[in-house]
Amino acid sequence: MPLPKDKKTVGCKWVFNVKLNSDGSMERYKARLVARGYTQTYGIDYQETFAPVAKLNTIRSLLSIAANLEWPLHQLDVKNAFLNGELEEEVFMDAPPGFEDLFGGNVCRLKKSLYGLKRSPRAWFEKFSKSVKNQGYSQGQSDHTMFIKPSGTGKVAVGPLELGLRNSRNLSRIKATHKGSRTTQCSSNRLELVRWQS
């Protein structure tokens, strides 16, 4: 679309990386389009940027409870998490490098967040917390990244990166919700049991 007269664009660049397996062998080549968010202006291109981060004490408490009660601990990795957040404000981006001729002077209007934008972490957390709350979880007061849901077999605690679960059925529900559902449109990359190392 053509750039509106009163708007400016955010630049972008390609970031190339080699993804390795745990044994050091190459898994795949990775290319990611990253916005140059440092060109955004507060009050024009974005408003609030704060996104809560899990507190170290919460993670320690969750690990301690899981170890003492012999609960299995699982980790959920959401593919390209920041790309699932929805933008509230209008953000226009230049054509990706190498595709300028295809755009013919037009620009991209972003509807979803992109790595590098100022609001990406906040947009992703809003999407994640809304999805988890829709499943009946309540947000913690001392740590806003902790979500708790009482169940028949015990409490289930969910954080943005860690899942402390006593009941594997709840784990399956969370995974199903985050795997291509219409409410979240997120797909899970890996859902694996956390390995204890001494």
UniProtKB/TrEMBL annotation:
Residues 3-159 form the Reverse transcriptase Ty1/copia-type domain. Keywords: Kinase, Receptor, Transferase. Coiled coil: none annotated. InterPro entries: DNA/RNA_pol_sf, RVT_2. It holds the Pfam family RVT_2. Transmembrane segments: none annotated. GO terms for molecular function: kinase activity. PANTHER family: AMIDOHYDROLASE 2 FAMILY PROTEIN (PTHR43383:SF2), NODULIN 6 (PTHR43383). This is Cysteine-rich RLK (Receptor-like protein kinase) 8.
